[in-house]
Amino acid sequence: MKQKPFIPYSYQEVDPDAMLQRAKNEFLHINTRRSIRDFSSKPVPKQIIHHLVMSASSAPSGAHKQPWTFCAVQDPKLKAQIRRAAEEEEYKNYHGRMSDTWLEDLAYLGTDWQKDFLEIAPWLIIIFKKPYDMIEGNKKKNYYVNESVGIAAGFLIQAIHRVGLVTLTHTPSPMNFLQKILKRPENEKAFLLLPVGYPAENALVPNLIRKPEPEVLFYY
Fold this sequence. Notes:
The protein is built from eight helices and six strands. With 220 residues, it is of the alpha+beta class. The protein has a four-stranded antiparallel β-sheet with strand order 1-2-6-5. β3 and β4 form a beta hairpin.
């Protein structure tokens, strides 16, 4: 196997004090992120979505296979189709598929099968995972697909928050309808749907408390 050439890594060292301040600021900023279900229809320029997705696409991946596709949907007719199909699945989830325990765990969030934000948000970004690529008619396996796509999704959520927009991690399981509506190839499977935009003026979020440091961080 021919080895790919290496290039020098471009690195600029940061003073430890400045690094600490950056770390503090990053936590303070990301800790304000919330999942939003009340969206404004205020438009978001396509170029902003472009840069957000390309930021996500810079994520690391198994063997650098980059096993993802991002579909950014702005067309109102497609968003309406997606909403109808998602609500069909969600209705089944809330009326039989979900266990009583699951429904109890969701109750305090006030969620139900109706998903009007899928039409209100100016953009829907659907992330597809690719278990394999098709290269000249042949299947080429990808590695650590779920992990790689999950990391890319995290990059995207972080980028959305950093530029001043909001989103929601939406998984109307099963999500096969997204592949059909968007006419994606057989090797692409829907992984996550993110409505993206501005919060509505009257947006409300649950009064959540995140786990404290002693429950999430252990030093050795």
